Amino acid sequence: MTNLLLDDIRSDRNFKSSLFRIFLFGVLLFVLDYSVSVFLENGLKRYYGLGGDAAVVFVGHSHLMLALDKEIVEKKLDVRVAKYTRPGVNVYDRDVMLRHYFSSCTGRPRVVVYGIDPWLFTSDGLSVNSYKLFYPFMDNPWVDRYVHRESKDVFDYLGHKLFRSARFDVLLINAALRGYLGNWSNLKFGEIDRTGLKREIASGEYRRIRIEKENVRQFEHTLRFLADKHVTVILLNTPVYHLLTDVQPEKYSAAMELMRRVAARYPNVRLLDLSPGLARDSRYFFDAVHMNPYGQKRVTGLFSEAFDSLGIRH
Amino acid sequence: MLFNSFAYFVFLPLVVLLYFIFPQKWRNLILLVASCYFYMFFIPVYVLILGFTIVIDYFAGIYLEKFEGKQRRYFLIASIIANVGVLAFFKYYNFLNENLTVFLLSLGFHNPFPDLGIALPIGLSFHTFQAMSYTIEVYRGNQKAERNFLTYALYVMFFPQLVAGPIERPQNMLHQFYEKHRFSMDRVITGGKFIIWGLFKKVVIADRLAAYTNVVYGSPEQFGGTTHLLATFFFAFQIYCDFSGYSDIAIGSAHILGFRLMQNFNLPYFARSISDFWKRWHISLSTWFSDYLYKPMGGNRVPRYRWSINILTVFLVSGLWHGANWTYVIWGGLHGCYYLFEYIAGIIGRKTGLDRYLESSFLWKVVQNLYVFIAVLLAWVFFRARTVSDAFFIVFRMVTDFSSQLYLGSSAFETATSMALIFLLLVVQLFQYNGVAAIYFNASRIPRPFRWAGYAFTVILIGILGVSSEQFIYFQF
Questions:
Q1: Residues A244/A289, Cβ–Cβ less than 8 Å
Q2: Which residues touch B45 (CB under 8 Å, ≥6 apart)?
Q3: Are A109 and A56 in contact (CB under 8 A)?
Q4: What is the pTM for the complete model shown?
Q5: Which chain A residues are within 8 Å of B17, Cβ to Cβ?
Q6: Which of A28, B94, B190, B344 has the least C-beta neighbours within 10 A?
Q7: How far apart are CA A292 and CA A283, in angstroms?
Q8: By the CB < 8 Å criterion, does B184 face chain A?
Q9: Whose CA is closest to A301, among A67, A54, A65?
Q10: Residue A112: which H helix or E strand, with range?
């Protein structure tokens, strides 16, 4: 039966030239794919400060991303800062991020600012399949092993290993371009829609605070890793608009109390809670959990002052 | 099976391999089995519905040829009733029943017919129309009845065009199942180009735009006029890229196997009149309506008032074909009105001599393009909105509310990317319109290295910007 196909191939006068054209296309695709991925990966490294020698590293999700201005902190504290923050990352992802950072940096950081909030131990509402966030860094052996372990199947892993451009998406292109432009600005302009938030809360559409044991264990696991690295850790509770915590006061207190207790077990860990002072002023918020540029400036100012008062040598 | 799924990119090479390694006598069977498998990937049991109409139309075709006179007409009517009946039951029962309930309630009665909650089998409208074109053409004597059941079944089940067209004619397709196709690497390359371009339009542009339009059209009351304008603008390109992307992948897949499907889209947003738009948009459907509805009603060989009714009827039926909802009927009606408006404007233009004066003006051509685009855009509001009241609300907001803040989607960068992709598409289409870049199987004037670099770049964009599998919009029809 295969003879039929072979006969067709033999009688196809253009077969060899067509095959050669496909080969050339493959080479072109490989070169383009590699170049684009290297360009984007380098942009991302600049944006997140990976592979550098920053003295202070910010790690967290979008709350921390929009709450602290890296450039102001660098100016005020006269240190190099790496801001490795990504939207939607949970406690597991943050652990991976820290290990990724430490496996790629050229100089060991002295301070890690770890973003916390009342939902630190809550899984709902954050990324699922979050290993996908690390596709762009699959060239790093540590990340590669992690993605390999977590991938849903071999096609998922190999697809991203071989087709490098597929590791990126629009958000990452944005981050990479901002990395090249040296732009870390908070672009979430505008003020929180309080009426809308009240409506959502009244209809029960808000994120519940839950304490999940696995997440607490993972958090402690990360703190132990940082203690082994002899790094000072600041657990920074970024402001949350009060309506969202007022609706679940007991859970809010319980989550914060648990974080304090865990922090107290580690001599290298300090907890800095900036929420109470700012939580009632809507001017600072883009939405219930994200700061607008005005709020970011205020939080960064308070953080820089507190950084010195914590007595951390940098 | 979705064209934009991983499964399809395993399925297609496998089918191509099996098709070319087996002798000719087995090939149609391989394609039929593959087509059934392809269709059963959605909801397996629905293949029985297709099987029912296939059996009826197969025998109807044979009897249409065998008998003469009135009996032939009865067989044709029986075939049409069977096809339209199946379509009406699955597609329009819920719609008719809901409207009957409203009507009877207004008279103080209860509707005795139960709500069956029937789900429409994927691609049934396409399948039905292709089947009907066969029996009508046999009746007209333009096509010999197909005696081989397997070949006939394959004609209406051929997987590349099974669920969303192009709606083929028996004269174009049936004889192709008897041709001996030889494997050709050239055809793999050409078909591959269609598939790459179709995938780009679907997963990079259409699905990305869908993320925005779904949010805005999902709750229109939450957004202002400028947001609705942008969402409708996005939808115009979303539906074009979704459907023409599907057609491209269908044409490319069939081409690799040695089959030639008809062109379904020809740069519709470059049309300069609504009649021109319908010669470029979903060509296989508009020619179907022209051949099997418009012309049998008398076409343009009847008095003007009858012709106007014919035009409106065709567009209203076309609207109803798209979906069992008044929004689609209004969408079709609007296009019918545009068509008649153009006819009247044409008469005025000819009488006043304005047409000769304006015809050579470049600016006038731009104005015509803009008029068509805006008119089509307005009609898309009705096509996309969930209800008629939603559609009127959106149109009202679009023309009265310009002060509300523009919704920028999940991020401003994401929305800017969508705009940039539409711009890129328009640039490519401008090249195609001017005959520089290839469209359908025409030759391209762009040097080969640039073309190949363009395709490589397109693959990269699919990798980076491709959004995961969303079903094709036209599957629901």
A1: yes
A2: none
A3: yes
A4: 0.86
A5: 5
A6: B344
A7: 8
A8: yes
A9: A67
A10: strand A111-116
Name A28's Cβ contacts closer than 8 Å, sequence gap at least 6.
B452, B453, B456
| Residue B354 contacts A where some CB pair is shorter than 8 Å | no
Tokens of A119: 């939902």
Interface contact B460-A1, CB threshold 8 A: no
Residues B195 and A24: beta-carbon distance below 8 Å: no
Angle at B70 between CA B65 and CA B71, to 5 degrees: 50
Residue B84 is which amino acid? V
Q: CA–CA distance from B387 to each of B212, B325, B338, B391 (Å)?
A: 19, 8, 22, 6
Residues of A with CB under 8 A from a CB of B: 1-2, 4-5, 8-9, 11-12, 14-15, 18-19, 21-22, 24-25, 28-29, 32-33, 36, 155, 163, 165-166, 168-171, 173-174, 187, 190
d(CA A165, nearest CA chain B) in Å: 5
The backbone torsions φ and ψ at residue A291, rounded to the nearest 5 degrees and listed phi first, read -85, 145
User: What is the total residue count of chain A?
Assistant: 314
Residue B69 one-letter amino acid: G
Contact A24 B456 (CB under 8 A): no
Flag if A18 and B411 touch (Cβ within 8 Å).
no
Q: Could you give the residue numbers annotated as active site of B?
A: 322
Does B457 lie at the interface with A, CB-CB under 8 angstroms?
yes
**Pick from B20, B459, B464: CB nearest A173:** B464
Every domain of chain B and the residues it spans: 8-180, 187-476
Beta bridge partners of A81: A56
To the nearest whole angstrom, how far is the Cα of B236 from the nearest Cα of chain A? 22
